[in-house]
Amino acid sequence: QVQLVESGGGLVQAGDSLRLSCAASGRTVNNYLLAWFRQAPGKEREFVAIISSSGRSTAYGDSLKDRFSISRDNTGNTVYLHMTRLTPEDTAVYYCAATTDSLTYTRRATYNYWGQGTQVTVSS
Question: Where does the pLDDT of residue 75 fall: very low under 50, low under 70, confident under 90, or very high at 90 and above?
């Protein structure tokens, strides 16, 4: 029903900025909330940010709102994650996800669809 493809990951140095993209496709994709999660090696998948179907409402994980910004294009088919002041602790695979349920949005089980992820590596 919904397919998600992430891109934009890579190797950067501490203090750099990076923009991730997620292309979404599906007949009803504009009805979905789109989110970013990340998973570092050996750690549980962590909520990063979410944006509403309209693009007018956003929320962020703890301690991330000062450095990360989520946005959605006018068609609703692409979601972005702008990351600034990156540190090695931001190293992870970043996933986009989609759901029609706005409740409990920090939990992985809430999401109906997931992309394959894009690797972000931040060197010191």
Answer: confident
